Amino acid sequence: MKTLIVGKIHLLGEKINTDLHCSTKYLPGKDSAYAAKHAFDGVSPGFATSFATGDVIVAGSDFGINSSREQAIQVLRLMGVAAVIAPSFGRQFFRNAINNGLSLVEAPIEGLSQGDEVSLDLQEGQLKVEKKSLVRSFSALPTFAQAILNAGGLIPFLEAHPDWSIH
């Protein structure tokens, strides 16, 4: 995980559950790579095709609700999503994102617009859109969660720290 992310914003709406962005149950015989090419088509046709590696999704409340599927994170990673900013996330989705090395930022989204370049300092908990002189603070993740993200996810973290335990 980079502690500083700079990317172009792509806006989505409220309560975007994982069935709306990556459900392969509606795409029999298709894999995550196929789902990534068509992610969010149901709410924003062509969304994935306009996305470049390193870009950032900004969405409304409860992004990722109703799912514990890790494929949701795999699809976002295959799209090249650097981070997702939303006022709130589905809790299982949030934890899956950390476990799979995807940065999430819980912050108000007012003032953020399609195409804005945003910089996120994940360690300091700061979001900036320089063109708009917009600076916003957010709660940085706990140290252990940052360590998991820095390792690229929970499995790489545990492989790098074989003696780590929860005591």
**What is the number of E strands?**
7
Q: What is the global morphology?
A: globular
| Individual helix count | 6
CATH superfamily: Aconitase, domain 4
| Most strands sheet | 7 strands, mixed
Sketch the topology as an H/E string, one letter per element: EHHEHEHEEEEHH
CATH class category label: Alpha Beta
- Mean pLDDT over the residues: 88
Main sheet: strand order: 4-3-2-1-5-6-7
CATH topology assignment: Aconitase, domain 4
The amount of helix comes to 25-40%
User: What is the correct CATH architecture?
Assistant: Alpha-Beta Barrel
Give the termini separation. 25 Å
What structural class is derived from the secondary structure elements? Answer: alpha/beta
Tally of domains:
1
What percent of residues are in strands? 15-25%
Spans with pLDDT under 50 lasting ≥5 residues?
Answer: none
Description:
The protein is α/β, with parallel strands linked by helices. The chain has 6 helices and 7 strands, in the order βααβαβαββββαα. It has helices at residues 18-22, 32-37, 71-79, 91-99, 143-151, 154-160; strands at 4-11, 56-58, 83-86, 103-106, 117-121, 126-129, 134-137. The chain has a 7-stranded mixed beta sheet, covered by helices on one side. Helix 5 (143-151) crosses helix 6 (154-160). It is globular.
